[in-house]
Amino acid sequence: MSEKHRAPPAPAEVRRREVIISVGGVLVAAVLIGVAHYAGDPLWVRQHLRPTAGSDVAIWQVQTTFLSVGFAGLAIAAQLFAEAPLAIGASRGRVLAYIGAGWFVGVGLAANIVMALEAIWLPSATGVVVAFAWFVATAVLLLVSTSRLTRLFGQPSRLDEVVRSSLVETLSDRLDLMAHRYAGATKGLDELLSPDSIVRTSPESVSTLEVPVPDAGRVVKGIRAKVVRQAIASLGIPARHRRSDVRSNAEEYVPPRIVLDVYPGERTRLGDTAFRVITASPVEAATAGRIVRLLQSSIELEPPGAVTPYEETEHEIATLKDAIGTNLRSGALATAERALDVLGHVVRGVWVAQSDHIELSRKESSIRGSGLSRSLREVEQDVVLSPQVAHVLIDAATVRALEAPATGSSEYVDECLRSFTRQWSDILRQGGPEFDGMPRRIVTRIRDLAVKSPAADEPDLLRSHGVWAMVELVKLALDAERPEDATVAADELRRLFAVDEEGSARTEVRAGLLVLSAWLRYLADTKDHRYPADPGLETTLLPDGSWRDIFAARDVIDRGTPFSRWDSWETESRVTGSTEVSRLPGFLDRAQLSALLGASGALPDAADDETASEYERLLRLIPDATHATGAEEGHLKQRLEEEIGEWDAGEPERLARQPLSSARIEALAVGLRRVLDERERLLDALSDRPEAQGAADESEQILGMNFRVARHYFVDAGVSHSVDDIESLARMIASAFTEAEDRQLVTALAAAEGTRLDPSASSLPAVVEILRAEAEHFVLLTAHDGLGEAVRGYPAAFTEELDRVRLIETGAIEEGAILFDRRTTLRCHRGPEQRDGLSPVEGTSLALGVHDDVRDLDGSQVRVELGERFSVWPGEAPRVFRLERGR
Predict the structure, then answer these.
(1) Which string of DSSP letters, residue by residue, matches 5-71?
(2) Could you tell me which residue, 768 or 98, shows the higher pLDDT?
(3) Residue 257 · residue 718 · CB < 8 Å
(4) Rounded Cα–Cα distance for residues 712 and 642 (Å)
(5) Overall average pLDDT of the 653-665 stretch
(6) Which strands form 273-279's sheet, in the order they lie side by side?
């Protein structure tokens, strides 16, 4: 925005300054005229500025007239506020500030007060001079305000600039406040949750459990990391009891991944997914139910009636959106274009402002920006009103897309391109014959954007995202059962090979064709009604090129594609809360194999595990895909077998060159110690009493874990796992032992004699007296939903005393709470297991061993074993109180 058209800010401190200056001026003027009235006028005033009789009253009258004229002008301006785009609350104040209305009103009223004082109570020649000075100030401010108001309404472009700047500033302030309010709402979650981009490309992620939001229509306040950690622990390898002389079988461990799909400050909607749990195999029904309950309980909600910043924004610009719709329907397209331009610039300005000033992750920024873009989506629903309206909305989307790369935000580029996909889908599904030319117009616009990116600093941003927007058009045409339009979009997608002179988009195009070819195969195999059964379309979507080109395209897909969420196409009709294995990656493999069979060239060397695994996967598909081995199939099969054979032959030598890293094993031990130190464990509240254990049978006192993980966790060379993965492994182990210990302790507490307390129990007063005297010695165990739900309905005197006891949340309790005296109720002893191959982890009660003895698998895994000597038995005088859930 140019400095010439930039409107000055009008924050609350500016208004306070206006009031302070006006009031200060009145006080100074009152002192001057008071002194002149009682002490007499100065000599130079009597000689040169002596007024005529009644002049003070005349000035007062003229001043009042000027003030009335100014107020009438403001009233006229207020009538214009009923028209868009000024019918926006934030813009009204900015317009008034721009014309200086606040100064005019403040000085004018202050002048009237001064003139009233002088004319009625403190007449003097000096008073007349002071009153005339105030009159001149009022007249000057009236002239300035009137001239600015006239220029403003005489130049719509300047008016639009004022409206845009006011809305951007107001909405950015709201987002700032929201960011500060919810700054700690996801504290501790970063280490637990997986980025969406990693999950989308993970070859180990084959099963997805979708967790629905717990309550629709509520604003998310925060996510409790403790409960999410408990859910992750439910997916890990459990720590089990065993005899000290028995070694358990090693289980294979593939870390689960959890993705968060709702963020603090957002309103939940019916059918929304809150979390996605990605695992290597389907989760058992009982475990899935527990995970859903835990993750839903981790979401804290604002009280009913809370309003999000986006909903406040909707109130601000509702009239602007209504004006766009009204003008589009009435045929006033020029006015609609103007209001649409204002709305688009507001969305862009706020998106850029929040990325500059708010500390948000890319995912959060995308979601919050999408909330702002919702207003544009609602306006674009009118695209099927007429071809003329469609032209207006397509042109507006083109302008926004051309300006998008300058923001440097790939998420904003995606939002701008989604305008085309929404318009495309609406026209195909709802448009009549008069819209026959619109689909080709949309395809051409996206093609031009992909080829002729205007941003010199981001030349590939629109190109890459535009290619995948074109992919989305083909898919949406198939959804609408319009195969002829799908063919149009597919032809333009292939034509990018010819118009892309630099060739930088060709790999992206091949990747898009590969995804679409896989999608067609999926529709055919599942007998979906959207399958077009068009051999010509199948041929168009089959990527060409050399073997290296095809593998390069697959690499693009595996790294994560921009714009298109092709991996969610399969789950769009899935019931939320269900667990299903994704089949689309398998069809992607088949599409890749078909493309390879139609290509030739040199096969990339199998230089790493990922490439060798990909070759093995394709090799297994050849008989299934062809049912016979012809010349092309035979050649490809031979080359794949040769590359896999060379890789397998060198495997022992590679493994010998990659011994287990003692530094990484030590990193796991350090991570275990750190995680256990950070957590509040029930065992920490009890005293360790080895001398009281007596003749307990040591063979029954072992908690242990024995599992296999990928060798890359513990090697330094090659493709090794990061420090974050080692930390994740440490958290899984710590959670397993903590939960196993807690469950054994809770079982012992349940077996001990105790008192049952409900809100009406007669023993409550006695318990209150005990807590008043000994609260520091008591521990209260609750579920992860906290104390509030467990003590709901209990007397205030009891709950106040509970605030003084030590509170521990544990997953070993599903509901209710247990209150006990930690001094006399339980006794325990723990320590590292003492056995060959295990070393104590300093500062913990665990023993750790990492063993390179997994001989039945190809050396790609190692075995991790841990053991803890753990015993618990009743104390000499148990005092246990069991709280029922309040009703």
Answers:
(1) TPPPP--HHHHHHHHHHHHHHHHHHHHHHHHHHHH---HHHHHH-PPPTTHHHHHHHHHHHHHHHHH
(2) 768
(3) no
(4) 25
(5) 75
(6) 257-260, 273-279, 207-212, 579-581
**What number of CA atoms fall less than 13 Å from residue 328's CA on the CB side?**
24
- For the stretch 566-599, what's the b/e string if a residue is b when 16 or more beta carbons lie within 10 angstroms of its beta carbon? bbebbbeeeeeeebeebebbbbbbbbbbbbbbeb
In 573-654, the DSSP E strands lie at 579-581
Token code pair at residue 201:
């490309």
CB 100 within 8 A of CB 148: yes
User: Given this model, what pLDDT does residue 3 score?
Assistant: 38
Residues 6 or more apart whose Cβ sits within 8 Å of residue 125 = 36, 41, 45, 46, 49, 50, 51
CB atoms within 10 A of CB 708: 20
pLDDT in tens, 188-207: 777 777 765 544 444 444 67
- Per-residue pLDDT tens over the stretch 15-57: 777 788 888 888 998 898 888 888 888 888 777 788 888 888 8
d(CA 558, CA 588): 11
Q: How far is CA 432 from CA 124, 333, 480, 724, in A?
A: 82, 21, 14, 55
Mean pLDDT score, 199-227: 77
Q: Cβ atoms within 10 A of the Cβ of 199, count? A: 19
Distance separating alpha carbons of residues 251 and 244, to the nearest angstrom: 18
Residue position matching structure tokens 């075995």: 863
* Distance, C-alpha 448 to centroid of its chain: 31
Q: Are 371 and 266 in contact (CB under 8 A)?
A: yes
Q: What is the CA radius of gyration of the chain?
A: 37
How far apart, in Å, are the Cα atoms of 209 and each of 431, 572, 819?
37, 14, 35
Q: Taking Cα atoms as reference points, which of 255, 176, 187 lies closest to residue 221?
A: 187
pLDDT tens sequence across 296-355? 988 988 888 887 766 776 676 777 788 788 888 888 888 888 888 888 887 887 777 665
Say if residue 394's pLDDT is above 60. yes
For the stretch 134-151, pLDDT in tens is 999 988 988 888 888 787
Residues 28, 29, 32, 34, Cα dihedral to 10°:
-110
* Structure tokens, 241: 């009891």
- Measure Cα distances from 325 to 66, 340, 375, 385, 864 in Å: 41, 10, 12, 10, 64
Q: How confident is the model at residue 398 (pLDDT cuts 50, 70, 90)?
A: very high
Locate tokens 């320590």: which residue? Answer: 831
Residue 700 has pLDDT above 90, yes or no: no
- Residue 794 clears pLDDT 50, i.e. is over it: yes
Cα dihedral 835, 840, 845, 848 sign: negative
Reference 90, options 322, 310, 315; nearest CA is 315
Q: Are 423 and 379 in contact (CB under 8 A)?
A: no
The residue type found at 458 is: E
> In sequence order, what DSSP letters do the residues of 260-299 get, joined into one string?
E---TTPBP-TT-EEEEEEESSPPPHHHHHHHHHHHHHTE
Q: 852: exposed, middle or buried (C-beta count within 10 Å: 0-12, 13-18, 19+)?
A: middle
Is-contact 810 630, C-beta < 8 A?
no
CA-to-CA distance for 793 and 380, rounded, in angstroms?
Answer: 51
What does the block give as tokens for 568? 């969610």
Q: What is the pTM of this model?
A: 0.68
Residue 819: both structure tokens together: 């209150």
pLDDT of 887 reads: 43
pLDDT of res. 726: 86
